[in-house]
Each structure stands twice: as structure tokens, then as C-alpha cells.
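A sample copied in:

***
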Amino acid sequence: MGQDPRTLPPSPNWYCARCSDAVPGGLFGFAARTSVFLVRVGPSAGAIPGTPPFRVIGELVGHTERVSGFTFSHHPGQYNLCATSSDDGTVKIWDVETKAVVTEHALHQHTISALHWSPQVKDLIVSGDEKGVVFCYWLNRNDSQHHFIEPRTIFCLTCSPHHEDLVAIGYKDGIVVIIDISKKGEVIHRLRGHDDEIHSIAWCPLPGEDCLSINQEENSEPEIPNGKVIEQTPVTKGCYLATGSKDQTIRIWSCSRGRGVMILKLPFLKRRGGGIDPTVKERLWLTLHWPKDQPTQLVSSCFGGELLLWDLTQSWRRKYTLFSASSEGQNHSRIVFNLCPLQTEDDKQLLLSTSMDRDVKCWDMATLECCWTLPSLGGFAYKLAFSPVDMGCLAIGVGDGMIRVWNTLSIKNNYDVKNFWQGVKSKVTALCWHPAKEGCLAFGTDDGKVGLYDTYSNKPPQISSTYHKKTVYTLAWGPPLPPISLGGEGDRPSLTLYSCGGEGIVLQHNPWKLGGEAYDINKLIRDTNSIKYKLPVHTEISWKADGKIMALGNEDGSIEIFQVPNLKLICTIQQHHKLVNTISWHHEHGSQPELSYLMASGSNNAVIYVHNLKTVIESNPETPVTITEPYRTLSGHTAKITSVAWSPHHDGRLVSASYDGTAQVWDTLREEPLCNFRGHRGRLLCVAWSPLDPDCIYSGADDFCVYKWLTSMQEHSRPPQGKKSIELEKKRLSQPKPKPKKKKKPTLRAPVKQEVYDGNEDESIRESSGPVENGVSDQEGEEEAREPEFPSGVASVASREPVTCTPVSLGFEKSKVTVNNKVTLLKKEPPKEKPESLTKKRKARSMLPLTTSLDHRSKEELHQDCLVLATAKHSKAELNKEVSADLEERFHLGLFTDRGALYRMIEVEGKGHLENGHPELFHQLMLWKGDLKGVLQTAAERGELTDSLVAMAPVAGYHVWLWAVEAFAKQLCFQDQYVKAASHLLSIHKVYEAVELLKSNHFYREAIAVAKARLRPEDPILKDLYLTWGAILEKDGHYAVAAKCYLGAACAYDAAKVLSKKGDAASLKTAAELASIVGENELSSSLALRGAQELLLARNWVGAQEALKLHESLKGQRLVFCLLELLSKHLEERQLLEAKSSSYNTWATGTAGPFVERVTAVWKSAFSLESPEQYQAALQQLQSIKYPSATNNTPSKQLLLHICHDLTLAVLSQQVASWDAAVEALLRAVVRSYDSGNFTIMQEVHSAFLPEGCDHLKHKRGEPQSLITPAFKSLEAFFIYGHLYEFWWSLSRHCPKSSVWVRAAHRRTASVEQSQQINNATPEETDSGDSQPEPNRPPELDVRLTEESKQMLITCKELFSEKHASLQNSQRTVAEVQETLAEMIRQHQKSQVCKSTTNGPDKNESEQAAEQSLSSPQNECKEEKNQPLSLPELTKRLTEANEKIAKFPESVKIWPFPDVLECCLILLHIGSQCPGSVTQDMQQQAQQLLQKYGNTKVYKRYCETFCT
């Protein structure tokens, strides 16, 4: 297993003639999306011995669109320079060592399609574009020249390796020309023969034409190719040129004669187990490489990804050798685009190929065998999952429609990756391995499909018959629930598959019967918990490892905890206020089993919360509990969290992935950021911790990359803030910009493809435009980007012959059809003239213009009319043919003859109106005729119905009118006039249809108005409308209007919930009042409390009390807030609080009297708290609330609130004479301030609540000395401890006032290292400890002790508790052994890293030094070095210490006690500074304790100082 970072890069770009290249010495580069990835090949790659010698070493970032060309400078001393061309119109020159742009030009006006760095001229880069323009750019003199040879699309170009002025250019239509750039681009040869795209041009590596014995008379083509005799200049003499074309032939041309001398036709090879869909028809790409040292051989690609080595010596026989003929499955499975030769440092001749199968392969030219393969990704890396059974097997869900399974443990191959594409056909957004069954992998896709793969067989996957309506967000294996669990043991699987989809539903699939129906677990949740209101939209599911608890994350930010077997809701966590993206339970195999109850979650907010659910799960409450306080809060990311994963190797270590472009490792127990990875160029979507290597993490992002990285090698410790995050954002934005699709896609360069889906997405060439949820967007812009093809749906026109119609029009028409969804509109341009026709109508336009114009002809014609009319009217007999023909011709006479002739006249006039774009006049004529039904039908077919026509429809009958109104409504919908269409439907009493039409087009307000006005109040349609509109408003953040919708639908609970979503004080207050009005008292009080806490953060005391006043159930909280306000005022007056507050309540102003009396007085006056029953009730309310213990990182406002909660319990307990409870509550408050390192607060609690010390509590309890509780002892000890420090400081300074205590290492759990207790205690302590090795130094001041001080020093004996010293010593031993073990593991990992990297000794030494200095204080290092401990010895120590701890009574372990040895040291210091102040007896006792228990390395140094 390699200890080296690795990269799975994006796929090399397709359909480019030269977008990869390599230089001698072993550097290879390929263009992927908008950048170029660099790969070091050969010995210098620094790969682990035994693995393929290559490594991805970096990326050239700078283009904003697809890179279409890449070429190195092949001049010695200049191998570090390369050039790229891009669809953004620029050609950039780079230095690969600095990965920076040297210079660039944007000379081309059109898409660049070919690029080459001249092998003859050091600074010449030649490029060509799709319009046929060639630019020559000289780097050193920043000069350029342009040539326009042919108005055709250039496909490829190659500069001659023998003559600096010759360039061969291949065109789309099969023409090849050789030009001389020194003669203004004069055409030297025009080589005709190919009849399709030229994909590749290769010059023969040897000049002259002696290397091939080609029969000169063969292929009798005309001697004069261009119709003119070419002069034999030295330039044109002697060199062969090979071209590969889409017409399936390779042609060899002679430059001396300007004609073809050999044709090689590609053979049809039998496909050998290619891993691709056999129904897919693939276009051909024919690329060539002419080996430098073998001019008689030529390498070419073939139809299905095979490579051929042609033998050119025997021109009459078409002889070729197949690459990798012996070994199965080594060839590419799809067409090959580029071939690059590479000579490594150890002189191996290699060939690198890029292909449509997304693999980069390296071939040994000596054996024609594949040396290694670098797989790549063609889409976002959505999901990473390590197999719990087959360790080291990493499954990757990718947006290119394929699942990758990476065997990360493979010793011989760093990139042992298998692809699974069958049955997927969409972006893979979710993966989950079966916990016990080998090779069983569940996957979910962007289109809602759920399936099961057996990765050990080649069978297609089983697909569940139940699809999600939207993207599958998450998959999880869990125990079966009803109805699947109702069968007998053998009739049901032990685990079923759960899937959560974008529509908010969680389905349970039976893996034995995927063809059967999957069950929506919402039904079970409803039935078990008797829920009436709307269930939240689920976005995440996670099962606890023991399979007994399921967590569901929701769109509103809540997390619900359910218990098997029937999903009883035991707890709701209201912490996040945005959609929950990820939930993860802590593993069960840590050193502290209780950590398995930790659950980390991340949402669309940037904060990660960790909750400890031990109490809730073990107490199994009757009614669901609501949690609003997190156990730990991890802040630092600046964008949404997409994935979190616990380390399987550590306790409480978490890694998170975020849209801010970084992954962060946290120590959750300390709320501490450890290291930050910034290697991605996109938004991170997934992260996974290696199950075998504690230092190694894998992450995937929307930059198409998966990175393996080591935590120990990261230079940053926390996510970027401010400027850094802006820089990161810039780096991310250098990814493709969102662009509308060009009307002329690269269709010019491609045929039509017939496949419906090919897995060829090149996603996100424009960025996501759709709403992104759970790290997955609906339309990520993962378009078939550079897959050059016409829009699907256009018939397959041109696979052989050239396309005749222009692709522009084709693409444009297609898009028009889709936009309008109405093909008929495309026929008809005239409607644009309607406004014009209306203006002409105002000029009294004639209804019969043709008839009128015929009546204005010459007199002779008019006379003739009269004669024809008279003949027709008065000839009694049948009209003869001549007269009939005359009448036919003079149609305007129909006005004066019979009805049939009139109809004919109206028909001619009507046609005229239509041709001139006046359909309304035609309609009127038809009305005159009485053919209203015909008019309506014609108008409906042409989409020309109008209000007036429909208004006249009843004339034709009731049914015709109904039909006409419906047709008009449809027409209005096509014209986006939905409200008008609905009004017309209402006119024919189609109320439901009108409402549905408005709803489906998002006119909810109008739909509700119609439904409310026309339907029964109890009609379910109305409720559905309210709920649908409410859900959409909620999603868009219009919470107040959404709440009105839910109230309209009689869902008051949901209304209150949605109002509270914004989370500010005003919203929460309104939501609480609303909940109270509708009788949801529990919800109301929880919202009121949240609102009050928000006001508390703003120090708005009056507002906070106002918010709590409404609810009797929050009376206890009002007392806490009251005490907090009084304490804050007290601290502010003593200038111990920075923030000032103006809005105190009136009762907070009086400052006279002891603090506790003031508190009870205010409670009595302001809260009417007098009787013991009232005190008891408040006490019970508050006792049910538990807050997590404090840490150094607990915010001060939160700390004060938690301390005041404990102090309130203490005062209430005193009032009801429950003295034991009072002591315990007081002790909790003191310990909380002690744990957070806030000495000031601790002393203020002492002075306010124990002004006379602890004696009065002892008397109140009225018990004999023997029954004093451990809690009381601890409280007394802390009281003395605080006074001891104050006294000591008063000796050290003139000013005895203490500032904030700066201790950094106070922890009271055995698991946390206490090594810095003495070093970091206080500046004075360390100073005196270091500077006074001999305790007999005379004191500087003549200090006279007061009586009080002497008394205090005597009471310090209480601190010398033997059993506590023993317990603390055992705990320190455990912590020290754990730290030593961790250090051993770190050193071992370090040595592994050192072996695998070749960074030179200096770096390793410095890193080790840094590591040592971090791991332990310097003085102990040496000692530890001298006596290295073996693992069995350490284990033995740990076991002994744990056994000792276990023997102590619970009463001693449960209550914290000041560090006994620390107190001993302080007393000895005081004794040395002020001789005679500490009795000899006490000094002796202190030294004995230090000698006995100071054997851990933390105290050794100090013991030597004081005890020798």
C-alpha cells in the first residue's frame, strides 16, 4: 500500500488531433477539460518499487474553455516549454516547471483546431482554425504571420522535422496541402486521395526517400497532380509523409513527386471482449505515429481501440502486427485519439495513447505490450465508498455513467481500476457496499434508479422496479422493517436496502426481490407515531452501526432519530436550519465505547454539528425529545457541507468536505481543526477515510478528480477565510464558465451519432445552473460537451457522405422546436404582421379587394363583364362551355349570379387574405358564408383563434362552442397566456381543469382564488393547492407567505415550523405566538426558548424575558435568564465583562446586599416565587435540561448561560432545603468555569455564592463530619484552590487582582493528555519554576501575612487528598501511554512516508524534528529517547493504570477535584517565596505526595527541583 498521494484525473479531451504530447526524460501531458495534466514517467517519477513508474505531478490552469491542442517544445534545453490552444480563442505558452503562462496570443477569430511547436525552429508555434486560417507565432520576437490557404476547416497540421519552412495541413474534406511559410504560405503540394476528414499527419523521421523500397510505378496516379509541372526544388525533394483519415485508409505520399505511393486499408478486426455496449455504433478516429528509430514501421489506431504496427518494407503486402496480441483485455475498448512517443531517462522507448474509453495507456515499443494504464473520470466524482469486506476496495460514483472500483491495495498497480457501465446509463450519485456480502455494491443514479452490482462477476446489475422521481441522494443497508420484516427468518433478508431520493421519500428495497415493489417508510412512521401533520421532506438516511437506530435528515434542517423495529420517533434535533446533506455515526470499535453514540451532520449551512445521543437512546423516552444544543460545534468552512466521515483509526476524529473547495480534518472532542486539504479546483462532493492507513484520505469533487492525500503532509490547519477563500474561489472560477451552447457546436467536425447514451459526458463545460441539493444538481451542465454530434433526434444523415445542410441551421431549428413545443408555429411567419394589418383595417380596408380591383379595369373589360353576365342570366338553356369558362375566369361576377358562383368568389377572396397575412378578414368572409364550423377548425389548426371568433362560436351550436373554447385555451397555453386560458375554461364550467392548468404553470395565487370561489370549502384540491404553494414558497425562502398557505390548509403546526425557519428573534417570536394560538403548546415553548436565546446573544435582556413570559412551562428558564442578567450586571460593574448592555430590566439595577439574597428578592418581586411548591416546580422544570461539559473553545456567552443554569438549580435547591443538590449544582458551575479555563468567573461564583466559604453549607446540612459527601469535598477543595492561587499571585505582584486565568490544558477525562498542566498554568509559575532551581533563595519582599491568609494556608491541607492524587496519577499514566502509542504510530507513518518519497534527507530530518517538538516537551524528549519502551511494556502499564482506576469508588471518580500535585507545587513555591508561611509539616506532606505520585513526565522535572 503506497504512502504516496495519488490523483485520478479528468479524462483526456476527445476528437482533437493533438491534445497530448511527451518529451524525452519522461514528461507527458494531456489536455483534460480546461487544463493540462502533467505525468512524470520513468525512474524520476519516484514511484514505489514494484509499481508502474509514473506519477501525476501537476496541472496547467488558466484556460476558461476546453483545451483543444497541446504540444511540447522538442528542442533540448527547452523541454520545459509547451503550448496549448483552447476554445476560448487563445494560444498560451507555458513553463511546466513553474506551471505558469510565459506569454499568450488571441490572434484567431474562430475556433482553433490544430496546433504544433516546430521541431526545427526553437520559438515557432503554428496553429490553424476551423475557417482555414493559419497563424505562425514566433515566441522570442513576439511576432506573428497569418496565411489563408483554403477556405476549409483545418483538422490537423504538422511542421516538417527536416525543413523549417514546411508545414503539412489536413482538412475536413480530405485534402492535404504542404505549404512554405517563408513564401507567404505558398502551396508546394496539394495531395488529393482521401475523401473524408484528415485525423493525423506524420512526417517520415528520415529525410530522403531511400528508407522505403517502394515500387515507383505502383499506384499509377497522375504525375501532374495540380495540372502543372512542379519544379524539383531542393525543398520539395525527398521525404515521405503519412496521413490517416476517417475514410479508413492510411496513405503514404512522396514529397519529391507530390503524389501518393502507398495505401493501407484498415482491417476489420474481431472485437476481443471490449468493455463497451455492443449496440453502440462508433465513429472512427485514425491517428498515426512514425517511430524515430524505425522508419520502416508505422503505428496506427484501428476501429475499436486496437493499435497496429505496419511493416512498410514489403509494399505489395499489407503486413501489420497487433499490439498486445497475446494478453487479453490490455487494448483500449474504444477509439484512440492520440499517440505520443516518449523516451525515458533509462532509454526505454514508450508510446502513450489516449482513448474514448477514458484510459491513458503506456506501451513498450520493444515488446508491443501495455506497461501500465492511468484511468480517468469523465464526470463529477459524486460518491466514494470503501468496501467493509474487501478492505481497500474503493467504489467511485461518477457523472459519466460509470462506477469505478479501485483496488487501492494492489501492490503491482497503483491504479487497479475496474469500470462498470452496464445498466447505469446516468450519473452515479449514490453508492453503498453490503456490510457482509462480498462484492455486493448498491448504486443510485441521477434519474432515480436504484440497482445492485456483483463486482466479482460480469453480469449486468439487478435494477429495482421502483424508481425515485428525482436524483438518488443516499443509500444505506439496514435491518428489515415492516412489511418486509413480517416474514419468517428464512423468508426475508437479514439486511434491506434503503434509498433516499430528491423528492424527499425514503424507500425500502428487498434485495431478494428487486423486481417487487419497494416500500415508502413514511407510512410506517405515520402509523407508529400517529402523526397527523405533513411529514418533512427527507434528504439523508443513516443507520447506526448496531442497526437499532436510524437517523433521517430533512430539508428543513431537522434530524429525526427512530428506533427499530417499528420506527418509533425518540428524538428530533433542531440544529441545522437548512437542508441536511450528510449524517455519519461514529464507529463502535474505539477505546471509548460511548463515542459510538456521536452523530455528525452537515447541511447547506457551513457549520458541522456533533450530537451525543447516549442519554436519549438509553433512556428510551415515551414521547419524542427535542434537542437544541449540540454536543460539539465545528465552525470554519465557508460554504455548504456535502460529506462527513469519521476516522476508523482514531477516537472522535472527523473529516468534512465542503463547497468552499476544501476538506477539513477535525478533533471533534476538542472542537479543534487539525488539517485542511486544498488540492481540488472545484466544490467537494465526497470524502472517505482509508480503512487501512490512518494518515490517508480520499476526496472527490466537481473538478472530475479524485485525490488521495495524507493528513501529515498538509500545510494548512483550517479552511481558508477572507482573502484566502477569495483566492480559492478565483481558482475554482477558472473552471469552465456557464455559457449558452454555441449555435455552431463542433458539429462541423463530426458525423451524426446514433446512440442514445454513450457515457461520453464531459460534464460541466458550463457550471451548474440548476438548484443543487445534497451535492447533486439536477442539471449540472454535465453535457455531452465535446461529443461532436448533431442534436439527437435529427436523423443519421452523414456517416459516409459530407453533410450538405449547414449544421448551424440544423441545430437552430431543432432548438426552436423544443422551445415552442409546437412545430406548426415554425411554418408560419406572417403573424408578425398582425399589428400592421390592424392599422390597415382602420383605413377601412376592403373585405373584397380582388373584386373591387377587377371593377376598376379598362372600359372594354367592364363592358365584356356585362355581356358575359347577361348571357349567363338570360340564356334559358344550359350554359355552353365557353360561357362557363368565362364565368370561371371572371369570378367577381359571382356577386351578381347564383350562390355557387358567390361561394367561389368568397373562396378566391379568402385565399387572397390568407396569402397577404390577414386571417381575420378571411374568418369574416367565412362567417358571411355561414361556414362558422369550418372557420373555427381552420383557425384552430393554424393557431389563429381569436376572442371574437370564439365569442361567435355558439352560433354553430353548443358542442362546437365547447370544442372551440377548449381549442382556444390550448392555443393560449402555447402562447404562455395561462391565466386567460383558465378564464376561458371557467366559461364552460371546467373548474377543475382551469385550476389544474393554473397550478401546473405555477399560478398558485390565481388557482387558489378560482378554487376558493368555485369549489366546496372541503374539496381536497384546495388543501393540495395550499400545501404545494407553501412548499415552493418555503423552498424559495418566502417563509411568511408559506406559513399563510399552511394556515389556509389547516396545517398550523407546519405554519409555525416554517415561520421559525429563518431563525431570527422576530421570526421565532411570531412562530411561538402562532403555535400558542393554535394549541401546539410544546412547539410554542420550544420556539419561544430559541427566540429568547437569540435575544440573549444580542444581550437584549428585556426582550428575552418578554419572549419567555407567555409560557408557564418556561418559568424555570426565566429564572435562569434573570440570574444571568444579575450576574452579567455584577460582572459589568466590576469591569470583568467586555460587552456593555443598555437594556437591563428595572429590577437588575439594585446592587445592595449579598448576591444570593438579591436573586431571591428579585424572584419574589418580579416572578412571584414565594412558596416551596413554586420553587419545587421550577426545580423540576430545570432538572430535565442537561448541557454538555465545557471546553476551551466554548463561547463565553454560552458558558455564562450554562453556569447560570447550574447556579439557578443551586439557589432553588437551597430554597427547598435540598442541600446536597445545592452543593452538586454549585460544584457543576465551578467545574464548568474551571474546565473552560475561565478563572475569573470561577472566583466570581465563589465570592457571590460562597462569600463566607463552605462552612455555612456544612452547618446547614447538619451532618457529622463522617458523612460529608464527595461533592461537598470537591466544592470545598475548589474554593480553597482558587484562594490559594489568588494568594500566590498577590505575592508575585503588587496588584493582587487576577486577570483571566490562562491555563490551556485543564481536562478532567482520562483520555485527554494533561502534559501541559504545569507548563501552561501561568507565566509566573513557569518562570519561577525554571528560574529557581533551588528553593532556598531568599525572598525579595518582606511579606507579612494577615490572619486570614494564615488561616487559608492551614485549610490547604484539604487539598492533599491521597486518593485523589492516586486517581489523577493513574489517569495521567493512561493519557501518557496513549500519547506515547500515538507518537510511535506517527513516527512509523513518517518513516513510511520518508521511504516512499524522494525529497532528500534534509526535509525528512526537519520534519522529524518538527514532529518531535510537537509531540512532547523538549526536556522529556531526551529522557524518552534514552529509554524507549516496548509495546508490551506500554500495554502492561495501561492495563495496570486502568485496573487501578476501576478500583476507586464511583463517588471519587464522578466529582472532579483540583490537581493535587499542582496544589503541592504552588504551596512549595509559596514556602520558598515567603519562608515560614507554610508549616514544615505541610511542606513535608506536599513533598511526599510529589515523590509518590510525580512519576509521570509532566511532573518529573518539578519533583527533582523540590524533592532533592
In short: The radius of gyration is 42 Å. The chain is about 35% helix and 20% strand. The first helix runs from residue 522 to 529. The longest strand covers residues 336-343.
